[in-house]
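Table S2 (text version). Query chain:
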Amino acid sequence: MPTPSTSRMARRQSTRERNGNAGGNDLSAPRIVREPMAGHKPTAATPIAFVQTILRAYEQFGADPAEALRSARILPRHLRHAQTRITAAQLEGFTQMAMRQLDDEGLGWFSRRLPWGSYGMLARASLTSPNLGVALKRWCRHHRLLTEDIILTCSVAGATASLSITENRQLHESRELCLLTSLRHVYGYACWLIDYRIPLQRVHFPFHAPRHADVYSLLFSGPVHFDALEAGIGFDVRYLSRPIRRDEAALCNMLRHALRFTVRQYRSDRLVIPRLRDVLRADSTGLRTGESLAAALNVSLRTLHRRLRDEGSTLQKLKDEIRRDIAMERLVRTSRSIKQIARDVGFHNEKSFMRAFKDWTGESPLEYRRGAGS
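Corresponding structure-token output:
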């Protein structure tokens, strides 16, 4: 990409400084940062201040951050300038390696380490909840098993549900990143659980707006307020009744890149499966190729395969599941012959269908029909 001109960079720098210092020292009202215009998200928006905060954890534990910085392609010149921005992917990679190297998912914030896998344990403990409200209550309760330096609370007032943080320990220079990350952990997980980006009515933090306040609107889907009494988020109470749409297999896949839900806005990673099931059910024989299925979903074939891989499935597996389900339904609910049903689900000959059906169910089509009838 071409390098922006010096004058353009100066204008951007001036704009960021005006945004970061708007309101001056007037503390009579909370600062608010509105959401950015749709489609206007810079690729390098994450402030280097977050990296510098994590570097203090390396100092605290007497560890060398050089390998983690190299892996994330964060250069020494990036660290020298307070206004430097890096990408979300760089922060994600650096944070993950830091947590592993320091064996502390709290990154030195708390009075004791949170060993690698601590937040995965919280996620697993909440996964079997009947709805989002119960899951959030469990998350908050189990978080106290990790640390009581901060206390997370889920509460309801009228039509608004809230997640708030009470501080029981001085967090000093790590305060901003600790509170921000703790909220992002639970908010990102909540969106993932119900497979929906929950719109926030309010986001608030108990410190002055930092120079990089604009980045907060990229992390939370709602207006952000500073100089509040405590850190927290608020959203429509009706989301608490939404059912959990994830299982253990999905959790295992998610945990491989869980930090993505901390440093980036939630983006659905499951909608392709129910849509694909609907498409295959509507035309299980006409849409036989990957290209035709991708076109029906209005995505590229590469994107379709990637999304299915991220969810622990494949195109062939889903096609076989739909063929099996349709075949089982027609064996039980219709009097169509085995040969006719084989053609219905895309098999050119009866013998191939019979072999596939036995692989799927452990029974031949005729045995399955007789068993269902009896």
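Notes on Table S2: The first helix runs from residue 6 to 21. Confidence is low (pLDDT under 50) at residues 1-42.
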